[in-house]
Write a structure and sequence with these properties.
The complex is a heterodimer. Chain A is built from three helices and seven strands; from the N terminus they run H-E-H-E-E-E-E-E-E-H. Chain A is α+β, with helices and mostly antiparallel strands. Chain A has two domains: 30 residues; 99 residues, Nucleic acid-binding proteins (OB fold (Dihydrolipoamide Acetyltransferase, E2P), Beta Barrel). A five-stranded mixed beta barrel of chain A has the order 2-4-5-7-6. Chain A is elongated and about 70 Å long. Chain B is of the alpha+beta class. Chain B is built from 21 helices and 13 strands. The chains are: A alpha+beta, B alpha+beta. Chains A and B meet through helix 1 and strand 1 of A and helix 3, strand 1, helix 13, strand 3 and helix 14 of B.
Chain lengths: 145, 680
């Protein structure tokens, strides 16, 4: 067997293993981005899917309940009750009116069980006055783009 | 003042266009005047951008809240250091910072090569200034740092600014972005030299020799930047993670990976004249990934915890990247004949092939990270559904690749160039291999059920022994000739071949860091509500919450918990994790308490008080071996410095060898270490 073959075989073997790991890894950790109305329209068959839902945290809705945290996400008057049961501490930016991204699964009762929360704060001074947006507001979900 | 700043940027842009064109035409038609004026334009651009940056910094320090940028990223209460750091704290300022660093680098390059590399310099300058044109275009026309706040038609100032994000008000965060930028921008220089010699069809490896230290320094900046980011995340984010595979983190890792591959594969070209195309591809990929990383953090195409605002500049980046990729691919394909290899691979069991597989693995990991980072974009484009992948994907792919790379780190030095005899393989591999395997067996026998962890520790021992053996063997041989003791001989050995032994020090640092990474397999954590005086247990620690205190400083309101830690009933330390609430940005942050120790860190976060206000919510963690990562980081910096020091050459032998290498390769840069080339 000449060298080209040897190198070829080893290379193919290495790349094959990596590809196999990658495909398995994607299956294991993929999460679908959904808006609240898409989540509401989902059938029972899709409860298995891991989802990422974005929205604003309804003011006054955050309630600590033992190790759980309950709150409500809103987007265009649609509301989604969320229970956070993850282990990481909630981010400091997570509070009333923050833009949050909940990562978890839907339950049959219409509650969303989140394992992870990411949040970005809405800004103090209104970017509209500045005449240029973007400089101030930080946007976590860019569905709109 | 804002007018002066904008004007300076505009002129810098015009001069960058001029410098690109003048150098290109001047180099092509061999017009010395055009070339010289192109080079002078570089200095002028540096002066203009320095002026603009100075004005912006002045506005930030004095709190000129008429400027949108100042209002958004600074406030009155902020310490001076962070006011200054606001220069690179936001979109517009950071792009100005980018351009300023590029201008500084370019000025250094032009000045230090004012008499050397005259044939390729015009093209080097035009590549540098082409990049400069793009960045000054952005800050001159698209996202100007000197925009004023205007309501209706009147310019107004807000009474106080928004302030820098409090999470970023941390010393590590003040220097983390500049380090990353120094790294990002720095790769433009070796790239420019590569392209310059490609355009000129310059024979030999002059561009690699000239830019070797430059590449190392850039790589060092990038490593420091990434590790500072990791250290900051560990200390500040409150959950003890130092790496989360966030898109922005990945963006900084990608060029670092290809840069690492480049540092290794150039050795193949220098010593054997192989992999010339590959090196061109690698340095180009590194440059493009640096631009791509800058783009990824600003465009908002992937959502990230710390991406900048969404903005219209994404399309400009895509256009620039497309143009650059097109040019690079054209140049390499068109000049393929001049990049042919001078040697062939003789055997799978050779130093050459270990370099080859090192590169293959690094590239595969780079591709995997890129794929995972862009997965939401790709899946939306192909299936219409936006799907993201996160840490489990990256860990699953990267952990095995990382372990394999670690193994290669140890195997490389054991292979000889060209081919290795079975006998010498057996001799070299036997003891380190046996030790590594034995450690794995012992760990598993004593109940370590984490397979990767056991493998990792085994590999670490194997590689560690190999590297130490290299030092000892070399020092022994040297000591016999010079009569020196072991330790002085090791120092002398390193000084004689800084590149090789500095490289080993970096490898050793990587081993130490891997020990630290592996510790993460044994993390322990607990979230609990505890009344005052109550206690709980985690790992070997008994933790008792004593009290909660409150207070206020100008910038924020704080309250902190006092937690006493006991081990086996003996008092160890009082930990004081704190929560802060920043008035100006209405944001709270946690200041965790960490007790660092070589074997494990105790890490406590005060998450808040319970609803009734009677109990403290405490998150406690034990992180084994984390400190090894930071120790390894320092060692890595040291090793890279050693690599950059010129090797000590015995004058006389040096000269004879220099002459002998010069015959074969007249373009060889004379200040490089001839002894290394001949003797290694």
């Amino acid at each position: 067997m000449n060298n080209t073959w040897k190198f070829g075989l080893i290379t193919v073997a290495i790349l094959g293993v990596i590809l196999w790991l990658a495909i398995g890894g994607i299956d294991e950790s993929k999460a679908y981005y959904k808006t609240i109305d898409e989540v509401k329209a989902m059938g029972d068959g899709e409860l298995e899917k891991r989802l990422r839902v974005a929205g604003d945290v309804m003011p006054g809705s955050i309630v600590r309940d033992g190790s759980l945290v309950r709150f409500t996400l809103i987007q265009d008057d649609l509301r989604l009750p969320v229970i956070y049961n993850g282990t990481e501490p909630l981010p400091d930016t997570f509070r009333d009116n923050a833009q949050a991204l909940a990562d978890g699964r839907m339950a049959t009762d219409g509650t969303f069980y989140a394992k992870r929360i990411q949040a970005k704060c809405a800004s103090k001074y209104a970017p509209k006055e500045a005449g240029s947006d973007g400089a101030v507001s930080e946007v976590i979900n860019n569905k709109a783009s | 003042m804002e007018n002066l700043g904008s004007l300076a940027i505009l002129f810098a842009f015009l001069l960058a266009v001029f410098a690109t064109a003048a150098s290109l035409v001047g180099g092509w038609k061999e017009k010395p005047f055009l070339v010289a004026s192109g080079e002078r334009a570089v200095y002028a651009i540096w002066a203009l951008l320095t002026l603009a940056s100075g004005l912006l910094i002045y506005a930030l320090l004095t709190g000129d809240f008429r400027l949108a940028y100042v209002a958004a990223h600074s406030n009155r209460e902020m310490p001076i250091l962070y006011k200054f750091a606001a220069w690179w704290g936001g979109q517009e300022g950071s792009l100005l910072f980018w351009a300023w660093i590029l201008a500084s680098y370019s000025a250094v390059v032009v000045f230090s090569n004012r008499r050397s590399h005259r044939r390729i310099m015009p093209f080097v300058v035009s590549v540098l200034m082409g990049t400069m044109t793009f960045f000054t275009l952005l800050i001159a026309f698209i996202v100007g740092p000197f925009e004023v706040l205007a309501v209706g038609k009147l310019v107004t100032a807000v009474p106080d600014g928004n302030g820098l994000n409090p999470l970023l008000q941390h010393p590590a965060m003040a220097i983390h972005p500049p380090m990353l930028y120094l790294g990002y921008v720095g790769f433009t220089v070796p790239f420019a030299f590569a392209m310059g010699s490609l355009i000129r069809r310059e024979p030999g490896e002059a561009w690699i020799h000239t830019t070797r230290r430059w590449t190392l320094l850039t790589w060092l900046f990038q490593s420091i930047g990434i590790l500072l980011g990791a250290g900051w995340a560990y200390e500040v984010l409150g959950w003890g993670g130092y790496w989360g595979w966030d898109p922005v983190e990945n963006a900084s890792l990608l060029p670092w990976i290809t840069g690492t591959a480049f540092l290794h594969s150039v050795m193949m070209q220098e010593k054997k004249g192989m992999m010339k195309v590959w090196n061109m591809v690698l340095i180009s990929a590194t440059f493009l990934l640096c631009i791509f990383g800058t783009f990824l953090t600003r465009s908002g195409i992937v959502s990230s915890v710390h991406a900048f605002a969404q903005s219209p500049i994404g399309n400009y980046f895509i256009a620039f990247l497309a143009l650059a990729i097109g040019l690079v691919v054209y140049l390499i394909l068109d000049r393929m004949d001049f990049l042919h290899s001078e040697a062939r691979l003789d055997s799978v069991m050779s130093r050459e092939s270990s370099f080859l597989f090192n590169n293959l693995l690094l590239l595969a990991s780079c591709f995997a990270v890129l794929w995972g980072t862009l997965f939401p974009v790709l899946s939306e484009a192909f299936t219409g559904e936006k799907i993201s992948v996160d840490a489990p994907f990256f860990n699953r792919v990267m952990v095995p690749i990382g372990l394999f790379l670690l193994l290669l780190t140890g195997m490389g030095p054991l292979f000889a160039w060209r081919r290795t005899s079975a006998d010498s393989l057996r001799r070299n591999f036997l003891w380190p291999g046996v030790a590594g395997l034995a450690l794995m067996v012992v760990l598993v026998a004593f109940g370590m059920h984490h397979a990767y962890a056991a493998i990792s520790f085994g590999f670490c021992l194997f590689v560690g022994i190999v590297i130490v053996t290299e030092f000892v063997k070399g020092a022994n041989a040297l000591g016999k000739r010079t009569g020196q003791w072991m330790l002085p001989a090791m120092v002398e050995l390193t000084r004689r071949n800084t590149r090789r032994y500095g490289g080993y020090i970096v490898h050793m640092a990587i081993v130490i860091m891997f020990v630290g990474f592996t510790g993460a397999a044994f993390n322990k954590e607990l979230t609990i509500e505890v009344p005052m005086g109550g206690s709980f247990r985690l790992g070997g620690y008994d933790l008792r919450v004593r009290e909660i205190e409150n207070g206020q400083t100008g910038n924020y309101v704080w309250n902190h918990a006092k937690v006493d830690a006991y081990v086996n009933g003996r008092f160890l330390v009082t930990m004081e994790p704190e929560r802060r609430f920043y008035e100006s940005s209405r944001q709270s942050t946690s200041e965790v308490a960490i007790r660092r120790a070589p074997l494990e860190d105790l890490y406590i976060n005060f998450a808040g008080t319970s609803e009734d206000g009677q109990k403290a919510v405490i998150q406690a963690y034990v992180f084994p071996l984390v400190s090894w990562i930071w120790v390894g980081s320092w060692m890595m910096f040291l090793g890279t410095f050693v690599c950059m020091v010129p090797s000590k050459v015995d004058r006389q032998t040096g000269r004879t060898k220099l002459v002998s290498t010069q015959i074969g390769d007249p373009s060889l840069d004379l200040e490089e270490e001839p002894a290394v080339r001949a003797g290694d």
